[in-house]
Write a structure and sequence with these properties.
- This protein is α/β, with parallel strands linked by helices.
- It is built from 19 helices and 30 strands.
- Among the domains are: 66-245, Rossmann fold (3-Layer(aba) Sandwich), CATH 3.40.50.980; 523-642, GMP Synthetase, Chain A, domain 3, CATH 3.30.300.30.
- It has an 8-stranded mixed sheet, sandwiched between helices.
- α5 (98-114) packs across α9 and α10 packs across α11.
- The longest helix is centred in the first third of the chain and has 17 residues, at 98-114.
- It is globular, with a radius of gyration of 24 Å.
- The structure holds 5'-O-[(S)-ethoxy(hydroxy)phosphoryl]adenosine.
- 5'-O-[(S)-ethoxy(hydroxy)phosphoryl]adenosine (WTA) is lined by residues 258, 303-305, 380-383, 405-410, 431, 497-499, 511, 513-514, 520, 525.
Length: 645
C-alpha cells in the first residue's frame, strides 16, 4: 500500500496546507479517492458552526472495516495487524495477522447479530487491553452498531450513567483484566452497574483472568461459546466472511464519553467517513509511517488515543500496531524498552506523564536495551515540559529520532497540531504547526482575534479553530444543543478547544493547558465539577471546591477544599472515606491527591466560589491573591492559607 498523500518535505507541507485551506473540497476529495467506497459522495463538505452542522462526504457509502481489513487482504494477509504484548512478559505474545483479524471480526460480527444487535444499536465495551477488545470494536463497526468503549478505570456508577445516556442494550466485557500486579474484576463492576437496570439485554463475557463471575441466565453469555457458534455458522457458507453493512459517511461510528467543565461527561460522536480519513491521514503524516514499520501506541483503547492510533489509524493504513496489556513500570521500569527491543518497534507514542514517571527511575532501566529500531518518538495528552522532552529525545531516541508533540482532543478525532516526523521542524514543548485543513486562531476573552505580540514575537490567547476538518465531532449523543453550547457558542463562528496557547513568529503553537475547569490528571480528562459532585455525595460533606495544582509526575494533581460536618473518625479516616466515595462515583482515577478541611470557601457576595484564589493557594502562591475585598468573608482566605497541605 502506498500513501500518495504522505507529505515528504517542508515545502510540500506548506503547499498542501495552502491548498487544503484555499480549496478544502478539492483537497480532501482527492485524499478520499484513496479509500474504498461503495458509493462516491455527492458533496465533499457542507457546514456551518451556528447549529452546528458538519457533513463530510455526504451521500458516500462505505464500511470503515472494509478499509481497515478487507482491502489489505490481497497483499497483507500474513502481515501482523496487531502484535499483542501480554501484561505478564512470560506469557505468549499473540500476533494477529490481517487474515486472522478478518476472520475474528467476521465471527464477532456474526456473534453480535446472533445476540440481537442491529445497525444503529449502542454497544458498551468495558474490557482490558486484549485483542478481543479490538475485534469487538471492529465487529460493531462492521455491522453498523455504535460502540461506546469505557475505560477500565471507571466505576460502576460511571458506567451506569453512560449506559443510560447512550440507551445501550448490549455490553461486551471480560471477567477481569490484568494491569501490572493487579487483577481488576471488570464483570463484577458491570454487575454493580446493572443493579436495577432494565434496558441491557445481553452481556457477552470474554475470559481473561478466570476470576469467579456471576453469570445471569438469559442475560449473560460467554464470548468463547458465542464465537464458536458464530464460526460454525459462517463455515457452513464456505469462506468465512460476514459482509460489512453499508453505512452512510455521516452515520455515527462511535460514542466516546469525555469530561467537560460542567455536569456529567458527554458522549462525543464521530462519523464513519470523516473520522476514517482523518485518523488515517494524520497517522501516515505525523508518524511518517512506512509499510513494514511497527507502531507502538501505549494508550488504552478506552481513550480516544487508543481508538485512533492503536485501532483505526494503523489498520486503515495496513500498518502493524503493538497493543500492550500492562503498565510501563511492571514488572520493572524497563518494560517499554523490552517491548521496543523484542518487537523491533519503529515508533513509540506515549504520554508525558509516562515519560516523567520513567524518568524518575533514572537511566538504569534503559541500559543494555537495544532501541536501535526506533525512528520516531511521539507524545500526546498534555503539555510536555522541556526536561521530559529532552530526556525522551536523548535517552530513548539517542538524539536521532524526531519527537512529535501531537496536540488534539477526543472531540477532534485525531491530531490537529503537530510536527511531522523529520519533515517539519520540532521545537521542544511546542506542538508546532497545524495539520493541513486545520485553521487555528487565538482570541481574547471577547472573541477578538489576538494581534499583539510580546517582545519575542509571541502571541497568547484562547485556542479556537475557524473551519471544520474531516475528523471533528458531529454532535454530543442525544443532546445536540449541548454540543453547540459547549464548543460553538463561547465564540460564535468558531470551535473553542478549551485550551490556551501561544503562537511564535514562525507560526508554531504551544499549548499551555486548559483555560476552563477541566483537569488533566496523567493525561486523563476530568472536570472539577464532576469531582466536586462526587465529593459532595459523601454524607459528611457540606460543600467542596476542587482545583488542579502542578504535580511532578501526573502533570496536574487534584486538590480538594472540603467543608465537613460529620463526626466520624479522625481527619485521615475522613479523607479516606471521601476518596473512596469519589472512587465509587467516578473511579479511582479521580481520587483527590490532597484534601484540606476548611470552615468556609472564598465566595463573592453573589455566592460564586473564587476559584482563582483557591488555585493560587493550591499552587503554593500565598501572596498576590488579587483583590479579595469583594469576598463575603475575606478572613476565610487566611485560614485556608494557614491550613494548606
Ligand atoms: C490536552 C487526548 C498539550 C489538551 C488526545 C486537550 C495536550 C486535552 C496535548 C484533550 C499536547 C492533548 N500538548 N496539551 N500535545 N495533547 N492535550 O480529550 O488540554 O483526552 O484539550 O484527548 O489534552 O484530552 P483528550
Amino acid at each position: 500500500m502506498s500513501y500518495p498523500y504522505q507529505i515528504k518535505s517542508l515545502e510540500q507541507y506548506h503547499a498542501d496546507y495552502k491548498r487544503s485551506v484555499e480549496d478544502p473540497e478539492a483537497f480532501w476529495g482527492n485524499v478520499a479517492e484513496n479509500f474504498t467506497w461503495r458509493r462516491k459522495w455527492d458533496k465533499v463538505l457542507d457546514w456551518n458552526f451556528t447549529e452546528p452542522k458538519i457533513e463530510w462526504f455526504k451521500g458516500g457509502k462505505l464500511n470503515i472495516t472494509e478499509n481497515c481489513i478487507d482491502r489489505h487482504l490481497p497483499e497483507k494477509a500474513n502481515t501482523p495487524a496487531f502484535i499483542w504484548e501480554p501484561n505478564n512478559p512470560e506469557e505468549r505474545v499473540r500476533v494477529v495477522t490481517y487474515a486472522r483479524l478478518h476472520k475474528r471480526v467476521c465471527q464477532a460480527a456474526q456473534m453480535l447479530v446472533n445476540n440481537g444487535v442491529k445497525k444503529g444499536d449502542r454497544v458498551c465495551i468495558y474490557m482490558g487491553m486484549v485483542p478481543e477488545l479490538a475485534y469487538a470494536v471492529l465487529a460493531c463497526a462492521r455491522i453498523g452498531a455504535i460502540h461506546s468503549v469505557i475505560f477500565g478505570g471507571f466505576s460502576a456508577q460511571s458506567i451506569a450513567d453512560r449506559l443510560y445516556d447512550a440507551q445501550a442494550e448490549f455490553i461486551i466485557t471480560c471477567d477481569g483484566a490484568y494491569r501490572g500486579g493487579k487483577d481488576i474484576p471488570l464483570k463484577s463492576v458491570i454487575d454493580d452497574a446493572l443493579v436495577g437496570n432494565r434496558t441491557i439485554k445481553r452481556v457477552i463475557v470474554y475470559t481473561r483472568t478466570r476470576t469467579p463471575v456471576s453469570m445471569i441466565k438469559g442475560r449473560d453469555v460467554w464470548w468463547e461459546d458465542e464465537m464458536e457458534f458464530a464460526l460454525d455458522q459462517l463455515e457452513k457458507n464456505g469462506e468465512v466472511n460476514f459482509p460489512a453493512v453499508e453505512m452512510d459517511a455521516e452515520d455515527p461510528l462511535f460514542i466516546l464519553y469525555t469530561s467537560g467543565s460542567t455536569g456529567k461527561p458527554k458522549g462525543v460522536v464521530h462519523s464513519c467517513g470523516g473520522y476514517m480519513l482523518w485518523t488515517n491521514y494524520t497517522f501516515v503524516n505525523v508518524f511518517q509511517y512506512k509499510p513494514g514499520n511497527i507502531h507502538f501506541c501505549t494508550a488504552d483503547i478506552g481513550w480516544i488515543t487508543g481508538h485512533s492510533y492503536i485501532v483505526y489509524g494503523p489498520t486503515s493504513a495496513g500498518a502493524s500496531s503493538v497493543m500492550f496489556e500492562g503498565i510501563p513500570t511492571w514488572p520493572d521500569a524497563g518494560r517499554f524498552w523490552d517491548i521496543v527491543e523484542r518487537h523491533k518497534v519503529n515508533c513509540i507514542y506515549t504520554a508525558p506523564t509516562a515519560i516523567r514517571s520513567l524518568m524518575s527511575y533514572g537511566t538504569d532501566p534503559l541500559k543494555g536495551k537495544d532501541l536501535s529500531s526506533l525512528q520516531v518518538l511521539g507524545t500526546v495528552g498534555e503539555p510536555i515540559n522541556e526536561e521530559a522532552w529532552h530526556w525522551y529525545d536523548e535517552n530513548v531516541g539517542k538524539g536521532k529520532c524526531p519527537v512529535v508533540d501531537t496536540w488534539w482532543q477526543t472531540e477532534t478525532g485525531a491530531c490537529l497540531i503537530s510536527n511531522m516526523a523529520g519533515v517539519t521542524p520540532a521545537k521542544p514543548s511546542w506542538a508546532t504547526l497545524p495539520m493541513p485543513g486545520v485553521q487555528p486562531v487565538l482570541v481574547d476573552e471577547r472573541g477578538e482575534e489576538i494581534t499583539e505580540r510580546d517582545e519575542h514575537g509571541v502571541m497568547k490567547g484562547n485556542l479556537c479553530i475557524k473551519a471544520p476538518w474531516p475528523g471533528i465531532l458531529r454532535t454530543t449523543w442525544g443532546d445536540h444543543e449541548r454540543c453547540r453550547t459547549n464548543y460553538f457558542a463561547t465564540y460564535p463562528g468558531l470551535y473553542f478547544t478549551g485550551d490556551g496557547a501561544l503562537k511564535d513568529a514562525d507560526g508554531n503553537y504551544r499549548i499551555t493547558g486548559r483555560v476552563d475547569d477541566v483537569l488533566n490528571i496523567s493525561g486523563h480528562r476530568i472536570g472539577t465539577a464532576e469531582v466536586e459532585n462526587a465529593i459532595n455525595m459523601h454524607s459528611g460533606v457540606v460543600e467542596s471546591a476542587v482545583v488542579g495544582y502542578p504535580h511532578d509526575i501526573k502533570g496536574q494533581g487534584i486538590y480538594a477544599y472540603v467543608i465537613y460536618n460529620g463526626h466520624h473518625g479522625d481527619e485521615n479516616l475522613r479523607r479516606l472515606d471521601i476518596s473512596l466515595t469519589v472512587s465509587k462515583i467516578i473511579g479511582p482515577i479521580a481520587k483527590p491527591d490532597k484534601i484540606q478541611f476548611v470552615s468556609g470557601l472564598p465566595k463573592t457576595r453573589s455566592g460564586k466560589i473564587m476559584r482563582r484564589i483557591l488555585r493560587k493557594i493550591a499552587e503554593g502562591e500565598m501572596e498576590n491573591l488579587g483583590d479579595t475585598t469583594t469576598l463575603l468573608d475575606p478572613e476565610v482566605v487566611n485560614e485556608i492559607k494557614h491550613g494548606k497541605l
